[in-house]
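hey so u asked for the seq, here:
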Amino acid sequence: MFVKQSQTRFKVRYAETDAMGIAHHSNYVIWLEMGRVDFMTSLGLPYREVEKRGVLLVVSGVAVKYRRPAFFDDELLLTTRVGLLKSRLIRFEYAIERASDQSLIAEGSTEHIATDFEKRAIPVPQYLRDLLE
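ran it, structure tokens below
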């Protein structure tokens, strides 16, 4: 069972909104990455360190379900956790809430295949499995 999670607070920037003043859907993938990087750092193993150890976590899938709009200057709370850990795959799961009223803005997931620098799939290293489980 996975219980580790991290939270990232941020504000919707003006440049992230469309003509209607709503956060553009393309920004959500960037926000998920921000949460994932913060999650790894919170565990004491920054992404950069994983890569220094010869492992790349290549994105193999992204899903976002938009629930409510986010607007310029909204403060958002992004919760990140591991949802699935297989021999060569890690799925991170995310929830984005508006901080002011805790309304769910979006839910999402990203799947990552562990590879070496030649982009060949490899098993998720034991040190990483131990940290994520």
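The chain has one domain: 5-123. The CA atoms of residues 1 and 133 lie 7 Å apart.
lmk if thats what u needed
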